Amino acid sequence: VQLQASGGGLVQAGGSLRLSCAASGRTFNRYFMGWFRQAPGKEREFLAGTTGSGGSTYYAGSLKGRFTISRDNAKNTVYLQMNSLKPEDTAVYYCAAALGVVYATTAVEYDYWGQGTLVTVSS
């Protein structure tokens, strides 16, 4: 599967952005989908994940309810709605797909990665 992330950009602190990740192929609903981010000099960080059906979602505790993951299997797309953005949210955001798992929060568990989209939050 190929993944194409989009929706990043420059936003002021307190603002919102919605990231999208479009997947190729006809088996999208078989993949657990996740969002990660990586800031300069830091390790890649798990943010959120959702099962193939979208029926279950998981989040990093540090987000405190500011981000929401969702998916539209008819459109082969997963989204990350980000609200109340802070300067420390500045990073490159990646979507990723894991086949055959129902829960994945570490980068090594994922099989495919999008190219990343840059989010910059100004203070």
N-to-C SSE string, H for helix and E for strand = EEEEEEEEEEE
Number of helices: 0
Distance from first to last alpha carbon:
37 Å
Give the fraction of residues assigned to helices: under 10%
Give the total of beta strands. 11
Task: Please compute the radius of gyration using only Cα atoms.
Answer: 13 Å
Structural class designation: mainly beta
Contiguous uncertain segments of 5+ residues: none
**Average pLDDT score:** 96
**Which oligomerization state do the chains in this entry correspond to?**
single chain
Task: Please state the overall shape, judged from the principal axes of the Cα atoms.
Answer: globular
What fraction of the residues are assigned to beta strands by DSSP? over 45%
Largest sheet: number of strands, sense, barrel closure = 7 strands, mixed
Provide key terms for this protein.
seven-stranded mixed sheet, globular, mainly beta, single chain, 123 residues
